[in-house]
Design goal:
5-stranded parallel sheet; 229 residues; elongated; Rossmann fold; Arc Repressor Mutant, subunit A; alpha/beta
Length: 229
């Protein structure tokens, strides 16, 4: 049985060889890159099932690569795991905001790496609706298929995570989601993110929604819901 194709980009040869060894043992098809420029050329020619992305790369860094991929409609559905020595919370949150699906700090366990990869690749049973129908609340419109949100016809510039959070809450107005359910829906199970990160995303989303931010209600001690009129 042919398994998924995984691209790995890292400027450290020993890390590339280690990851290649670990994933090849699991029968994944691995392709290695040493720079962001080489990766972007390769990824447009041969789209992978998952990308392991180092952040501290020569030339284009990992954050910019993630941004480029997530802003390309032909590539945005590629799951990305950031694999890096940058373990500060601000770096983790920045990675999530750009649309990374997971964030693993070096040095890492081979078992943890493969478990995270398997979890992301088998993910599919999400509580996020796959319905492409436009969600409308007064003059707020959410278009899941296009990943677009507008208020009174004016487009809002939301991050990947902010869009999915808004879609999740708005698809079932009045339904209360715990922070754990939100993490699971946005990123999949076993995702290493703190409750504070979810709260920060909610604050940012409310700010961008302006007056419409009132629709996102905090349910003290539980989580969040989208106000049901």
């Amino acid at each position: 049985m042919v398994k998924e194709k995984i691209f790995v980009v890292d400027d450290e040869e020993d890390i590339l060889e280690l990851v290649n060894f670990v994933l090849s043992k699991e029968s994944y098809r691995v392709q290695k890159f040493v720079s962001g420029e080489d990766l972007l050329k390769g990824i447009k020619a041969d789209k992978p099932d998952l990308l392991l992305l180092d952040l501290m790369l020569p030339g284009i860094d990992g954050f910019d690569i993630c941004k480029i991929i997530k802003n390309d409609e032909n590539l945005s559905d590629i799951p990305i795991i950031m694999l890096t020595a940058k373990g500060d919370e601000v770096d983790v949150v920045s990675g999530l905001e750009l649309g990374a699906d997971d964030y693993i700090v070096k040095p890492f366990s081979a078992r943890v790496l493969t478990a995270r990869i398997k979890a992301i690749l088998r993910r599919g049973k999400s509580i996020l609706s796959n319905d492409d129908n436009v969600i409308e609340v007064e003059d707020l419109k959410i278009h899941p298929g296009r990943h677009e949100v507008s208020i009174d016809g004016k487009h809002l510039d939301l991050t990947f995570s902010e869009f999915r959070l808004l879609q999740l809450l708005a698809q079932k107005r009045g339904w209360v989601y715990t922070r754990y359910q939100i993490v699971d829906a946005l990123r999949g199970s076993d995702y290493p993110v703190t409750e504070r990160a979810i709260d920060v995303q909610v604050v940012g989303l409310r700010k961008k929604l302006g007056d419409h931010g009132r629709y996102i209600e905090t349910v003290r001690g539980v989580g969040y819901r989208f106000k049901d009129n």
